[in-house]
Amino acid sequence: MGAFRMEPARVRAVIGLCAAFAVVSAGCTGPAPATDAGLAAYAEIVAEEDARGLAGLERVRAHLEHGDGTARAYAARALGRLEDPAHLPLLETMLDDPDPAVRAVAAMAMAQAVFRVDPGAEAGLAGADEIGRVRRAFASRVGVEDDPIVLGSLAANLGRLAQPGAEDGAVAEAERAAVEAGLAAIAQRLAGPAGDAPATTGAWACPTASCEPMAGLARGIEAFARRRPGTPLSPDLLAATARLSSVSAAVDGDAPADAAEVADASPGAARVRRLAAAALVHADQLTPSDAARLLQDEDWGVRRQVVISALRNGADADTDTGAGTGKVIRAGLQDPDPRVRVEAVRAYDRWMRPGGCCEAILRDMDDDDPHVSNVAIGLLARPCPDPEAQRQALANRAAALADGESDWRGPARALHALAGIAPGEVGDGVAGAARHTSPFVRAWAARAAALAGDVAALEGLSGDSDANVREAALRGLGAVAGAAGREAYLAALASDDPQLVMTATRLLVEHAPAETPISALLAPLARFTAAERETERDVRVALLDGIGAVGGVSRDDLAPYLTDFDPVVADLAAALLSEAPGATEEATPRPLPRAPTPDATRLAELARSVVRLRMAGLGDIVIALRPDLAATNADRFARLASEGYFDGLTFHRVEPNFVIQGGSPHANEYAGDGPFSRDEISAQPHWRGTVGLSTRGRDTGDAQIFINLADNVRLDFNYTIYGVVVEGMEVVDTIQEGAVIESAEVLAR
């Protein structure tokens, strides 16, 4: 392992934020356990938590009484991660723990315990009672809590509690009012003695250097408003939100709102303002004066929220007076930050284009930032009032594909957009793109051919050497050829790419079920099953669904799957066999052994490590591991990186102002490392620069990663974070579809 050095200031920042187990809630809440016993306790907690209670919870419960507060906090969080309301009584006692860090985590754990409760189901009253119990426990704590960090945690978790189902409107409104009153009470507490912030009608200052309590309050209000978009906030809560939208730092050295240095730094005032502005947007209560003021904010994230408001509500988009939508959109188009311009061009397309305007979209095709440019190109797949100018602009950009040395991302999208408005003019372009060396370009060629109805091109691309190109071609054939593509669909079933086989199965069922021999689906099912890869569940479920739709399967064909290693597959096989008259089958799955979890020595090592991704032609991205947030996923990421797993893989998904996603061996959503990893939900917000685990449902991690390009708090409490970019966010911002991870290595810091 080679030496790795960071600048001293950054070393201090990283150690302060990410050293061994310094964080258990939404920011830096206390010191790390300094003893081997503390690490040993955490390792024991991780082992039982990862087994989801199947190995018992003896050590978790024992560590709820550990002498070290951080160990108690991890034990409480582990119970919450089980997402089982049965643990609420025990967790509620932790709200009285003498350590504020434990109380903060207990609030998160209680809310997580009811995360999957459905108050709208037939047993809705029981669900509502469980959620109500959490709310009432929080309300009781607010009145006596004197720690601002804990109050912030109570707010963040109160705001996300599920509301009772719509079948009982009176109950729903009463519960909503109670949650709203609780948030308003926390706002008052933070503005009074607990927070030492000025209790005035003007702007607030953060009560601590990190702004964490105010960020917790803002997170809670934003989550509350997001759950019922368009529903006004109460006057008290609206007043608190307006104050938060102007919050400032109480001390010098406000933590960076951007991720230029340390992405998950304890939240600065700018992050609080972003969240408050977002809440006003969700509630449709961003007034013209608010918009005018926030458009002048120094933080791009605040200005972006104003433009998002214009994107959602463009009733006066044709006006440029005051702070009307039209003025906001035009200001956004001229903003110096590309992340604001991305939202502005989307808003322009939605509200001003219908009135006959495409000028800004055509102009933004040439924006210096590729995110802005590519979004604009994508919007040009629909006709503009001046179709000739649009056609010529797209044709000129698409022609650059012929130059193998130029960047292909914009030209490939332009070819696709051109096919949408002038399908008869892309034949030569599709033919050229179909011969391109990049499989990403050939996939774009297949999508363009589908829009153009070019069956011959699609048939040719359906035999491409790259599975993603074939999959795009099959989708196109399904749309334009239907049953005539049957042979291509059948041929694709021989692939080892899950996504391709899933698409082929769907198309066969949709277009040619009667002509599909059951053996054609049973063969890939047996092949994928023999590989014993948990993360190939989706393709096996798709094949079983296809088998059920095609019909004619015998018991002997499916009986082996009754004891499958995946309980989902075993249950589905049992359900299919039980459809026969008089048949009743029972699944008895035999799960694969779980991978060992990291021990105390490994956890300490991970806490001192970073993973460096060397991006071909772009630079380095350095990710500090966060075993304190997600022990098993940080361990897996580091292990795979050290084994060379990520070398040569790509970032296949780029969503401007959202995430980049990559690390798939097949460069798509459905291929990854073999075993599932468990979700490890924490209170850490999905701030810009945090690194998360891509999943397709609970506990389905396959080692694909995503990096947040913006503060994506809608992902909070639902997706695992196990790292944070501490160097190279400027590289992250330049990544486009197909960017190659040249190498990944684990280094000491």
CATH topology of the domain at 600-748: Cyclophilin
What is the number of strand segments?
Answer: 8
Please identify the top-level CATH class of the domain at 600-748.
Answer: Mainly Beta
The SS-based structural class is alpha+beta
Characterization of this structure:
Residues about 1-20, about 20-35, about 250-255 and about 260-265 have low confidence and may be disordered. The chain is globular and about 70 Å long. The protein contains 33 helices and 8 strands. Among the domains are: about 480-590; about 600-749, Cyclophilin-like (Cyclophilin). Helices cover about 50% and strands about 5% of the residues.
Compact description:
With 749 residues, the protein is of the alpha+beta class. Among the domains are: 481-591; 600-748, Cyclophilin-like (Cyclophilin), CATH 2.40.100.
Secondary structure layout plus pairing:
Elements: H1 8-18, H2 36-50, H3 58-63, H4 69-81, H5 88-93, H6 100-113, H7 124-142, H8 148-158, H9 169-191, H10 212-227, H11 235-244, H12 269-282, H13 288-294, H14 300-312, H15 325-333, H16 338-351, H17 359-364, H18 370-379, H19 387-398, H20 409-421, H21 427-433, H22 439-452, H23 455-461, H24 467-480, H25 486-492, H26 498-511, H27 518-530, H28 537-550, H29 555-558, H30 567-577, H31 600-607, E1 609-615, E2 619-625, H32 631-642, E3 650-654, E4 659-664, E5 690-693, E6 705-708, E7 721-727, H33 729-732, E8 739-748
Antiparallel strand pairs: 1-2, 1-8, 2-7, 3-4, 3-8, 4-6, 5-6, 5-7
